Amino acid sequence: MLRSAILCLTSPEKHFAEVIRYSVLGLGTYEDMLTRVIVSRAEVDMEQIKEEYRARYGSAVSLDVAGDTSFGYRDMLLALLGEQE
């Protein structure tokens, strides 16, 4: 927990890229975690988070989110993410 707090303070884009990856990785989606990150960071630093996510995981955030969510929920998250990379 201390590691997460320090990472969030020193490099928030790395921390939030990890949180998004963890929430869409594997079977199912941690919807609360994914929604909280995307909604809270959409107007702040989502572009930096998307760049960090692509650099670390070799995939676009929007593609991973679209592949793991469905219907109106997916559309809302993709609208907040902005243009597809």
From TrEMBL:
From what superkingdom does this record's organism come?
Eukaryota
Note whether rRNA-binding occurs among the keywords. Answer: no
A single GO CC term for this protein reads: plasma membrane
Q: Which SUPFAM superfamilies match?
A: Annexin
BP GO terms, sorted: response to cold; response to heat; response to salt stress; response to water deprivation
Is the Membrane keyword given for this protein? no
Write the protein's name: Annexin
Q: Which GO terms describe its molecular function?
A: calcium ion binding; calcium-dependent phospholipid binding; phosphatidylserine binding
Which Gene3D superfamilies does this entry report, sorted A to Z?
Answer: Annexin
